[in-house]
Amino acid sequence: MPTKQLEIRGIHRQNIIDYIYQLHGKESKPNHYQGPSWTCTVSKEKTIRFFQSDIPVVFVTFWSDDKDVLETILKKFRLKTFRAGG
C-alpha cells in the first residue's frame, strides 16, 4: 500500500486537522482520519527551538490503495500547508 509521511513545521496541529477536514477527511478514531479512498494519521505536536522561537512540528502520514489517489491528496494537502515569505 503506497504511503507517504510528511513533516510539517511551523503549522499547529489543529490547523493541520482543519486542512484534513477541508479535504473531506473525517476522524475515524483518535489521530486517524478517513477520506474518500485515503487515510491519514496525525502525530502529537512537538516543538523545536529555533533561535528564540518555538516552532511546532507535526508528522502526517497518508496512505491509499491507489497511488494516483495518494498523489492527488498529497498535492491538495501541500497546497494548504504551503507558506511563502519575503
What is the compact description of this entry?
By secondary structure, the protein is an alpha+beta fold. It has a single domain (3-81), classed as Ribosomal Protein S8, Chain: A, domain 1, CATH 3.30.1370.
Instruction: Compute the CA-based radius of gyration.
Output: 13 Å
> The CATH topology, please?
Ribosomal Protein S8, Chain: A, domain 1
Total DSSP helices: 2
Classified in CATH, the superfamily is Molybdopterin cofactor biosynthesis MoaD-related, C-terminal domain
Principal-axes geometry comes out as globular
Classification by helices and strands: alpha+beta
Distance linking N and C termini: 39 Å
Average pLDDT works out at 95
Largest sheet: 6 strands, antiparallel
What is the number of beta strands? 6
Helix content: 25-40%
Task: Tell me the number of structural domains.
Answer: 1
CATH class: Alpha Beta
Task: Give, in order, the helices and strands.
Answer: EHEEEEEH
Ranges where pLDDT stays below 50 over 5 or more residues in a row are none
**Judging by the overall fold, what is the CATH architecture?**
2-Layer Sandwich
- Give the strand content: 35-45%
Keywords:
86 residues; alpha+beta; Ribosomal Protein S8, Chain: A, domain 1; six-stranded antiparallel beta sheet; 2 helices; 6 strands
Structure description:
There is one protein chain. This protein has one domain: Ribosomal Protein S8, Chain: A, domain 1 (2-Layer Sandwich). The protein has helices at 13-22, 67-81; strands spanning 3-9, 26-29, 32-35, 38-42, 46-50, 53-63. It is of the alpha+beta class and 86 residues long. The chain is globular and about 40 Å long. Strand 2 (26-29) and strand 3 form a beta hairpin. The N and C termini lie far apart (39 Å).
